[in-house]
Write a structure and sequence with these properties.
The chain has one domain. The protein contains two helices and six strands, in the order βααβββββ. The protein has a six-stranded antiparallel beta sheet, with helices on one face. It starts with a strand and ends with a strand.
C-alpha cells in the first residue's frame, strides 16, 4: 500500500536571515530606483526576491536534493511545489497556511504574508514559525 508521509524542517531562522538580507538591501534598492514597497513592486524586485528566497531558504534546506525546482516561486501561486511547501504556523503550532512573501510595511521585511486557502493574511515574523515540508511517498 502506498501512503504519503510528511517530513518538516524548521525554516524560521532561514526566513529571518532572508528578512534581514532584504531589509539590509533596502537603501541600495532605493538608490537604484528598485521599487520594494508593497503594491509598488514589479518584475525587477520579484526577480531579486525570488533568487534570494531560493538561495537563502530553499537550497540550504533541501541541499538541492530535489534539483533546481523552479515550480516553487516566491510570491507566485500555488505557493507550493510538487515536493512540498513552506508552511506558516502560529506560536501555538496551529497551521495557518502557505507562505507567500515577506511584507515591508514600515521598511523592514518582518511581516509574513500567508495564504490560508481563502485569502492572504499577515502575521509578524516573530509571532510565527515556518516549516519547509516534504511530501514523500512511502510503500508499506
Amino acid at each position: 500500500m502506498n501512503q504519503a508521509t510528511v517530513e518538516r524542517v524548521d525554516a524560521t531562522d532561514y526566513v529571518e536571515i532572508f528578512s534581514a538580507a532584504l531589509t539590509t538591501l533596502r537603501p541600495l534598492m532605493d538608490k537604484v530606483g528598485l521599487k520594494w514597497r508593497d503594491h509598488e513592486q514589479y518584475d525587477n524586485y520579484d526577480s531579486l526576491a525570488d533568487t534570494m528566497f531560493s538561495e537563502f531558504i530553499l537550497h540550504p534546506l533541501t541541499n538541492d536534493y530535489f534539483g533546481f525546482d523552479r515550480s516553487y516561486r516566491y510570491d507566485m501561486p500555488p505557493y507550493r511545489s510538487v515536493w512540498g511547501a513552506l508552511l506558516v504556523y502560529s506560536s501555538k503550532d496551529q497551521l495557518l497556511g502557505n507562505f507567500v512573501r515577506l511584507s515591508a510595511g514600515h521598511g523592514e521585511f518582518n511581516e509574513v504574508i500567508y495564504n490560508n486557502g481563502l485569502k492572504e493574511e499577515p502575521i509578524e515574523l516573530g509571532k510565527c514559525r515556518l516549516f519547509l515540508t516534504f511530501d514523500q511517498e512511502s510503500t508499506t
